[in-house]
Amino acid sequence: SSLFNQIVKDERSIVSPIAGTTVDAIDTLVEKDGKKYIFIDTAGIRRPSNVNYGTEFFAVNRSLKAIENADICILVIDGKEGVTHQDQRLAGLVNRRGKGLIIDVNKKDLLPISLKEAENQLKRKLFFVDYAPVVYTNAITGEGLNKLFQAINKVWEDYNKQHKTSFINNC
Fold it and tell me: What is the reported pTM?
């Protein structure tokens, strides 16, 4: 939600360290450099065994529906925690659905390991989505947002690229 607020340049989402604060998907149109983007801030998706039936259950289902409806998904990884098993599951879900994917390591300033070690961990744990660009950001300061938009534009271009049938048949 902090990253979403920084992108839309407004306090649209409630930010809290308490899990489950974001319960509804919020979408906002953003214009940057003459291009229009629709960003959707969703609830974090915890393991099903950790989700109680009720508000969070429905919030997670709305988040999964947002993935289904998206063209490009930005998987936000907490730099302080590193890649979790749930991050791997979500990357796999996005991959299976054929969506464009960008991996955003947020809280770059709080990485407990060197940037090189963090990159190696990403390569090791998310090897199955090695096509996805990785961007390091700081949602509080806005550091890395330009690189995030560059990655979005590149993934959008690749996502919409058309190939000749002969090229596909030769693969």
Answer: 0.80
Query: Is the distance from CB of 83 to CB of 121 less than 8 angstroms?
Result: yes
Phi, psi dihedrals of residue 6, rounded to the nearest 5° = -65, -40
Q: CA-CA distances (angstroms) from residue 139 to 3, 96, 136?
A: 4, 28, 10
**Is the Cβ–Cβ distance between 102 and 75 less than 8 Å?**
yes
User: How many Å separate Cα 35 from the centre of its chain?
Assistant: 20
Strand, helix or coil at 106?
strand
Output the tens digit of pLDDT for each of the chain's 171 residues. Answer: 677 777 777 665 555 555 555 556 677 888 889 999 888 887 566 555 554 555 555 555 666 777 888 899 999 999 999 999 889 988 998 999 999 999 999 999 999 999 999 999 999 999 999 999 999 999 889 999 999 999 999 999 988 887 667 766 776
